[in-house]
Amino acid sequence: MTVSKRIDPKVQQQVANELGLYVYMLVDPATGIPFYVGKGQGERFAAHGNDAMLNDGDDDEAGAKINRIRAIRAAGGEPEIWIIRHGMKNKLEYTSVEAACIDLLRSMPVLQKPTRGVRVPEGISDQLTNARREASNGHG
């Protein structure tokens, strides 16, 4: 039997309130590979898991995402939600960040994490030679 890991609703609401406008991605916990990038505010980051329980995934994009979430849950996992950037000032900014993430992930391979390895944000930062992160201001 698959047991879904539930976040305390009060904690989830507090996190949502502090994020402001944000860009996030859903990551397969078994492989460490992202399968969806989205933007949102409030509790949007949690909506896809609920959709997977309630929706039959009629359209292609939603269907692929929902099917992926269901497959992860059937294997005993839960999709990871990574906040890529938060605290953005307007919808133009978060739409631009979302588009850049999608473009990057569609053009660069993301390799499966090693067996029993853990992939965390900033976990392979030594892969880039950039000394600074420009204007992330702690929001990336």
In short:
This is GIY-YIG nuclease family protein. The protein is of the alpha+beta class and 140 residues long.
Task: Give your account of this protein's structure.
This is GIY-YIG nuclease family protein. The protein has 140 residues and is of the alpha+beta class. The protein has one domain (9-117): GIY-YIG endonuclease (3-Layer(aba) Sandwich). The protein has 4 helices and 3 strands. The chain has helices at residues 9-19, 44-54, 60-74, 91-107; strands at 21-27, 34-40, 80-88. The chain has a 3-stranded antiparallel beta sheet, with helices on both faces. It starts with 8 loop residues before the first helix and ends in a 33-residue tail after the last helix.
Chart the SSEs and their pairings.
Layout: H1 9-19, E1 21-27, E2 34-40, H2 44-54, H3 60-74, E3 80-88, H4 91-107
Antiparallel strand pairs: 1-2, 1-3
Protein name: GIY-YIG nuclease family protein
Pfam family, one: LEM-3_GIY-YIG
Kindly, what is the distance between the CA atoms of the first and last residues, rounded to a whole number of angstroms? 36 Å
The CATH topology corresponds to GIY-YIG endonuclease
Structural category is alpha+beta
Shape: globular
Q: What is the CATH architecture annotation?
A: 3-Layer(aba) Sandwich
Task: Count every beta strand, where a strand is a DSSP E run of 2 or more residues.
Answer: 3
CATH secondary-structure class: Alpha Beta
Name some characteristics of this structure.
single chain, GIY-YIG endonuclease, 4 helices, globular
